[in-house]
Amino acid sequence: MSFDLLTFIIGIAILIFFHELGHFLSARLLKVEVEEFGIGFPPRLFKWATIKGTDFTFNLIPLGGFVRIKGENDPDVPGGLASASPWVRLAVIGAGPLTNILIGIVLSVLLFYQAGEPVLDRVKVMGVAPNSPAEQAGIRQGDVILEVDGKRVESVEELRNIIYARLGEEIRLVYEREGKSYSVTLVPRNPPPENEGAIGIMMGYDTRPISIFRAIPRGANAAFNYVRVLFSLPRLLMSGEVSPEAARPVGYKGMFDLYRQLGDSLAFFTAITMSLGVLNLFPIPALDGGRIVFALVEIVLRRRVPPRFENALHYIGFLILLALLIYINILDFVDPVELPF
Fold it and tell me: Would you say residue 228 lies in a domain?
């Protein structure tokens, strides 16, 4: 097993574990009985402890964990989730996604502290496409583009405009690496390949170190903006502002492909935990968000939706999501996902 695959599996497992831990802790806090807290997915390997009526187990598939709450779907079970008040159900169900979002905020702060703040007049190479003019010229991820044909470059837009004005023509590019300047010549491709650009680089900005106190508001703001974009995604898709290809869902293989391409574990897992939290809040039957809707309806109307009807909707939603998950994972193999350069 490669190191990348191992760190990917461990990272995803930790994020799912904390999601379930949020459900578990809120249930225990609100006196809802928990029958099992499992590390990994069944089949069960062994039970290592029973504490206050909860079995703590290790399971075979190491991709996260699960919580089995007493009476989750049966309101006739005393001490169970379904028999609790709608406010308690709302808190227990919402705790998992909110835990993921909270972890995302913390990771976002650490990301800003690690990466620093952008220097908006220094264009940095964030990625290089294989077999592109940039790679063949020796340009690497992390290089800073200083000049093109003697003209100093001070923004991503300026660099892009210069390159696209010289498609098919040789250009001289000066870049900085580890404090030293280098000069190379290359020819921007005409037409530029889809998702790679004319010379095959993903552009960003250089950064400078910042204190943790400056990283906190920047990281929190970036996390909240990411959440806002995720919640706006259905509207953006329907309006055509975002293409279905750009917002394509991915399975485990697709996530691993993106993880390898991105090359930044902290940024990847920040995005994944935020996405996991927000996706689970969507009002879709079988997801946490779908269950939250039924609790809110009961709070507003002071009348409960018949449990048999609710459970039937969640079952149908589960089957649809399962079919979608199978399709997505097959698509990851048939049409592998790639980062746009």
Answer: no
Q: Residue 232 domain-assigned? A: no
Q: Within a domain: residue 297?
A: yes
- Find the domain containing 141 and state its range: 117-208
**Model confidence, pTM:** 0.78
pLDDT tens column, 34-51: 999 999 888 999 998 999
Judge if 257 and 295 occupy the same domain.
yes
| Bridge partners (DSSP) listed for residue 34 | 69
User: 208-212 contacts: CB < 8 A, separation 24 or more?
Assistant: 208/116, 208/117, 208/119, 209/116, 210/112, 210/113, 210/116, 210/117, 211/113, 212/109, 212/113
Last residue within a domain, chosen from 148, 179, 208: 208
> Is the Cβ–Cβ distance between 265 and 12 less than 8 Å?
no
Which positions are catalytic? 20
CA distance 214 to 175: 29
Summarised one tens digit per residue, pLDDT across range 163-186 is 999 999 999 999 999 989 999 999
Phi, psi dihedrals of residue 295, rounded to the nearest 5°: -65, -40
Instruction: Identify whether 226 is part of a domain.
Output: no
CA angle 252, 257, 262 (to 5 degrees): 125
What's the number of domains the chain is made of? 2
The per-residue pLDDT for range 152-167, each reduced to its tens digit, is 998 999 999 999 999 9
Residues 39 and 65 in one domain: yes
Q: Decide: 187 and 179 in contact? Cβ < 8 Å.
A: no
- In the chain the beta strands, taken as DSSP E runs, fall at 34-51, 54-69, 117-128, 144-148, 151-152, 171-177, 180-186, 201-208
